[in-house]
Amino acid sequence: MRIGIGYDIHRFKKGRKLMLGGLEVPHGAGLEGHSxxxxxxxxxxxxLLGAAGLGDIGEFxxxxxxxxxxxxxxxxxxxxxxxxxxxxxRVVNVDAVVLTELxxxxxxxxxxxxxxxxxxxxxxxxxxxxAKTNERLGEIGKGRALAVHAVVLIEKKR
Length: 158
Ligand code: MG
Description:
Order of helices and strands: EEEEHHHEHEHE
Largest sheet: 5 strands, mixed
Structural class: alpha+beta
Number of strands: 7
Helix content: 25-40%
Strand content: 25-35%
Oligomer: single chain
Bound molecules: magnesium ion
């Protein structure tokens, strides 16, 4: 078994859709980024690649490559999971924490987890998405940014 950690932070920007785990979450602003800015998926992709020792998201999906401009980050997750499977591993489970003041993610956590599970081709029960505020501290606390921590456990296929 191997474990990987991922982290990402994006600024909020008015007029963009808020994409989290591939799901559009209603909010007055979205996350800035070259792709769709889905910080949750970016953190999970980094954890996944890290677990398998395959590098990081920037090496595969560079934000200077016009090919990925505006791209759904579900595509990154799909490609990263294929690389991990090709390296002989299967995903055991994913756990993620989203740090944001708003929006409240309670109504969306389950659907986000299901979407991530579906893309990884694993059971929804193997994906956990949690959300908390930053207690109004710092840039996240002021509602200017959203951050995500994620861990992924993988095991060698027999
Ligand atoms: Mg990112």
